[in-house]
Design brief:
Blueprint lengths: L1 E9 L4 H10 L5 E4 L1 H8 L10 H7 L3 E8 L4 H16 L11 E8 H10 L4 E3 L3 E4 L12 E4 L12 H13 L5 E5 L5 H8 L4 E6 L2 H13 L6 E5 L2 H4 L4 E7 L2 H7 L7 E13 L3 H10 L3 E8 L2 E7 L2
Parallel strand pairs: 6-7, 8-9, 8-11, 9-10, 11-12
Antiparallel strand pairs: 1-3, 1-4, 2-3, 5-6, 12-14, 13-14
Helix pairs in contact: 2-3, 6-7, 10-11
C-alpha cells in the first residue's frame, strides 16, 4: 500500500489548529515535531532523563505537523481540501503567528518506509560487553558479550546517549553475581537488564511513568529476565521499602542532588550508588551533594559534556 504524508509548516501556537485540519482531511492522527518541546524538557524541572540537543537541530525552526493518507481515489480531494483551508486560514486575523502554513507532500510505499526505518537503527555497543540491538538485526559478538534487545519503536530512548553508555560501564564494574540492584527511572529497562546480565539475582526496575514501566516490562520479557527483574510504578523514596547492593539512576543533576541523602536508606551498607545524566556544568554540584551525604566517590566518567559517578555508601 502506498501512503502520502501531508506536512504543514507552522508554529507552536498554530500546531493544534493545523493538527485538527489534517485530521478533518482524513488522517487518523498527526505527528508534531516542535523543537520547543525539546527545549522545555531540557529544563532542570523536566521529567525526561535526557533529550539530545541534536534532535532540536534536526527539527529546525518550523513546527512540522504531519498527517498520513492512503493513496486512493479520494487523495486528490483531501489535498485540495487542505490547500483550501490553509488559504482560508492565511486570510484570517488569528491573533497569533501561525507561521508559513506551507504544505509539503511526500509519497512512500509502506514496505519501503518500514525497511528504511529499520535501517536507521543499528547495533550499539555500551561498555565493554553490552550490545544493544533491535530484534530484527544480527550482529557480530565478541567473547563475553551480552545482547540487550530493545524495540526502537518504544519511547524513552534506546541507549544512544553518552549518559547511558557511561552508566552501563559503571554497572559492568560494580554489579557482581548474586548482588541485588534497583534501577530508578528505568525507562526502557536497559540498565536493569544490564545489571541482570552482570549476574544480579534480583533487580527492581521502578519509574514514575506507567508507560515507561509497561515498556520496560515488555523489554525485560523480550530479554528473558522476567524471573530476575521486577517492575514497579512509583517514586522509590515514597512507595518502596527495600534495600539493594547497588542503586542505579540515570536522571538529571537536580534530582540526584535531592535524592543523595534519602536514597541511602535503600542502599546496603558498603553498597554503591551509580548516578548519571549529569551535565558537566553540574558535576561539582552533584559531587558536593554526594560528599555531604557521606558517600565515598570512587569513579567519575565524562563524555560529550556529560558526567556519571559511582559512590560507595559507608
Amino acid at each position: 500500500m502506498d501512503w502520502m504524508e501531508l506536512t504543514v509548516l507552522t508554529t507552536t501556537a498554530g500546531a493544534d489548529m493545523v493538527s485538527q485540519l489534517l485530521m478533518d482531511a482524513g488522517s487518523s492522527g498527526t505527528m508534531i515535531e516542535d523543537k520547543n518541546d525539546v527545549a522545555a524538557n531540557q529544563r532542570p524541572e523536566g521529567q525526561w532523563d535526557i533529550i539530545d540537543e541534536e534532535i532540536a537541530r534536526r527539527i529546525g525552526d518550523d513546527v512540522k505537523v504531519t498527517g498520513f493518507y492512503e493513496v486512493d481515489a479520494s487523495l486528490n480531494d483531501r489535498v485540495r481540501f487542505v490547500e483550501g483551508e490553509l488559504r482560508r486560514i492565511r486570510a484570517l486575523d488569528l491573533g497569533f503567528d501561525a507561521g508559513k502554513l506551507e504544505l509539503l507532500q511526500q509519497t512512500f510505499a509502506e514496505e519501503d518506509w518500514a525497511e528504511n526505518w529499520k535501517k536507521s537503527f543499528q547495533p550499539l555497543r555500551l561498555g565493554e560487553h553490552m550490545v544493544v540491538k533491535p530484534g530484527w538485526c544480527e550482529c557480530e559478538l565478541k567473547p563475553g558479550d551480552h545482547v540487550i534487545e530493545i524495540d526502537p519503536g518504544m519511547a524513552f530512548g534506546t541507549g544512544t546517549h553518552e549518559t547511558t553508555g557511561m552508566c552501563v560501564e559503571l554497572v559492568e564494574r560494580c554489579v557482581r553475581p548474586g548482588m541485588t540492584a534497583i534501577d530508578v527511572g528505568t525507562g526502557t529497562g536497559i540498565l536493569a537488564i544490564a545489571a541482570a546480565h552482570m549476574g544480579a539475582k534480583d533487580v527492581l526496575a521502578i519509574d514514575i511513568d506507567r508507560v515507561a514501566v509497561r515498556v520496560a516490562a515488555e523489554n525485560i520479557q523480550l530479554n528473558g529476565f522476567e524471573g530476575t527483574i521486577r517492575c514497579a510504578a512509583g517514586d522509590l523514596l515514597e512507595s518502596v521499602d527495600e534495600v539493594a547492593d547497588v542503586v542505579i539512576t540515570n536522571i538529571i543533576a537536580d534530582v540526584i542532588i535531592g535524592m543523595a541523602e534519602p536514597v541511602k536508606a535503600h542502599i546496603a551498607p558498603g553498597g554503591t550508588f551509580i548516578c548519571s545524566g549529569i551535565s558537566s556544568e553540574r558535576r561539582e554540584d552533584v559531587r558536593q551533594a554526594l560528599l555531604a551525604a557521606g558517600y565515598e566517590i570512587f569513579d567519575v566518567r565524562e563524555r560529550g559534556g556529560w558526567c556519571a559517578m559511582a559512590a560507595k555508601r559507608p
